[in-house]
Amino acid sequence: MSLETTLNEDLKTAMKAHDKLALNVIRMVKASLTNERVKVGHDLTADDELTVLSREIKQRKESREEFANADRQDLVDGLDKELAFLAKYAPKQLSEDEVKQIITDTVSEIGASSMADFGKVMGAVMPKLKGQADGALVNKTVKALLSK
After folding, report:
1. CB 86, CB 25: distance < 8 Å
2. What is the residue extent of each domain of the chain?
3. Is 115 in contact with 143 (CB distance < 8 Å)?
4. Residue 53: pLDDT over 80
5. What percent of the chain is predicted at pLDDT more than 70?
6. What CATH superfamily is the domain 3-87?
7. Are 109 and 81 in contact (CB under 8 A)?
8. Distance between CA 127 and CA 144 in Å, rounded?
9. pTM for this one?
10. Is 87 exposed, middle or buried, given 0-12, 13-18 or 19+ CB atoms closer than 10 A?
11. Based on CB atoms within 10 Å of each CB, which residue in 14, 84, 96, 124 is the most buried?
């Protein structure tokens, strides 16, 4: 079942339950999916839907960090709830060790040996980890492995 179909079903459930958090989050994600569909000019693939969902999660994480730095705990709490709600739609996140192993294997496949190969490694590893690992973690891990 596609993400959009799942969201539509959950939207109906949230409406019946009068769950304001779920309604707001689902509507925002649906709006982003619709905007993306209009932008690309065709129906979204599962990969496209995952990209949009990842973008929504990333935006909330960044906002959460900014609010935490500004000492706005009320807004941080709201975003924590939204992130927890969105997590059920995202694929299972890989652990740091799993990410490091995939990156190590990719570095070996490519034969990368220095920071000059950073772009090649990132280009090869990101499709493998799409939606399963935070881009900042991947970036940090690749830099650490290539710096050795």
Report:
1. yes
2. 3-87, 96-147
3. yes
4. yes
5. 99
6. Uncharacterised protein YqeY/AIM41, N-terminal domain (1.10.1510.10)
7. no
8. 20
9. 0.77
10. exposed
11. 14
What residue has token string 């779920």? Answer: 22
Contacts 24+ apart (CB under 8 A), 94-99: 94/129, 94/132, 94/133, 96/137, 96/141, 99/129, 99/133, 99/137, 99/138, 99/141
Which stretches of the chain are DSSP H helices? 3-17, 20-40, 46-69, 73-87, 96-110, 118-129, 135-147
pLDDT of residue 86: 93
Structure tokens at 55: 């973008």
Map tokens 């990333």 to a residue: 58
The answer to whether the CB of 15 falls within 8 A of the CB of 23 is yes
Report the greatest alpha carbon distance in the chain. Answer: 56
Domain 96-147 fold is Arc Repressor Mutant, subunit A (1.10.10)
CA 47 to chain centre: 12
Q: Is the dihedral of CA 70, 56, 82, 141 positive or negative?
A: negative
Half-sphere exposure of 11 (CA within 13 A, CB side): 14
Residue type, 76: V
* Residue that the structure tokens 């990368």 belong to: 112
Amino acid (one-letter) located at 30 = K
